[in-house]
Amino acid sequence: MSVRSLCLAILSFGDATGYEIRKQSTEGRFSYFEDASFGSIYPALARLESEGLVTVREEPQPGKPARKVYSITEPGRAEFIASLCEPQAPDTFKSPFLLIALNAALLPPEVIRRAVERRKAQVREELKLLTDTEEDKQCQHPGSKWTRDYGIACMNSTLAYLEEHGEALIKIAEDAAQAIPAAAE
């Protein structure tokens, strides 16, 4: 999925300002689909507008500059649906934690223990976001509910794995630390 498609996806749920699109794509329910930086959203919206796939209207605000509100057009909706029908790219997953885990034998056990605990805390926080948001709980959109439930299942699985196997990762570091003095003798 491209930033372009992400903007169309967000707008398919309703009109939004560039700020709201950025917030949804970085912190909100659309943050799981594509990395979209502040600097990539506005150029994408400008291109979508020039191609007639979105419209923009200015809404006056008292004491502030007018805000630009974007709406998806029928051709924009058609392009968005067509983009969803394309073969999907593989999901990407990048994890600084896994780089630490990969190199557990090179690191002190306390670093690994902190990394495991930090990762568990991050997963719990993500679960909290997915389960505590009233807006998401009340959402009747079936695709949104399924996607949210999928995310919860993934996070629960990750947390369960860390709970069950985190000590084994720490043991790798402990075993390596014990082997260093023996090798020096």
Automatic annotation (TrEMBL):
Residues 94-165 form the Transcription regulator PadR C-terminal domain. It comes from the Bacteria. Residues 8-80 form the Transcription regulator PadR N-terminal domain. It comes from Roseibium salinum. This is PadR family transcriptional regulator. InterPro entries: Tscrpt_reg_PadR_C (IPR018309), Tscrpt_reg_PadR_N (IPR005149), WH-like_DNA-bd_sf (IPR036388), WH_DNA-bd_sf (IPR036390). Pfam families: PadR, Vir_act_alpha_C. Transmembrane segments: none annotated. Signal peptide: none annotated. PANTHER family: NEGATIVE TRANSCRIPTION REGULATOR PADR, TRANSCRIPTIONAL REGULATOR YQJI.
